[in-house]
Amino acid sequence: MQIRDGVRVIGPEDAPSYWQPVPANGFVRCILSGKELGTGFSMGTQTVAPGCMVREHTHDRHEEVIHLTAGHGFARIDGEDIPIAPGATVFLPRNRKHGFVNGGTEPMTFVWFLAPGGLEDFFAAIGRPREAGQPAPEPFPRPADVAEIERRTVFGWADQTPKR
To answer: pTM of the full predicted structure?
Structure first.
């Protein structure tokens, strides 16, 4: 990472990264932290393994933008499945139920922006540290206290149904 006069240039593997538990089974990169930068947003990427998903949830204090960069799947918005492909962008105002499903055979990657920030705190709390070039671990469960972690970070509601 290079920092000069507040400008940051962050390389592909410079950001904190975490393996994610089931049902996403991929990894996140927490590229910009609102706390670290003193800004009103956080930004990163998430890669969801084939056949896996980001559980349905809401953000009661945050807006979110998702921009798909690789793979195919669908956004589940208020129970409706909307196909998404690279280049698709989804804006989610507060309290909208949403999730993302990778129905394809390749990893699905998207950029996420959350305002105000804080999503990076959730990912660090539920994930396992990831280093560049590491092979993916075997699927692992969410922490037993995931509902409490969600409440204290950025979630209003989240589906607690056990998934693979």
So the answer is: 0.93
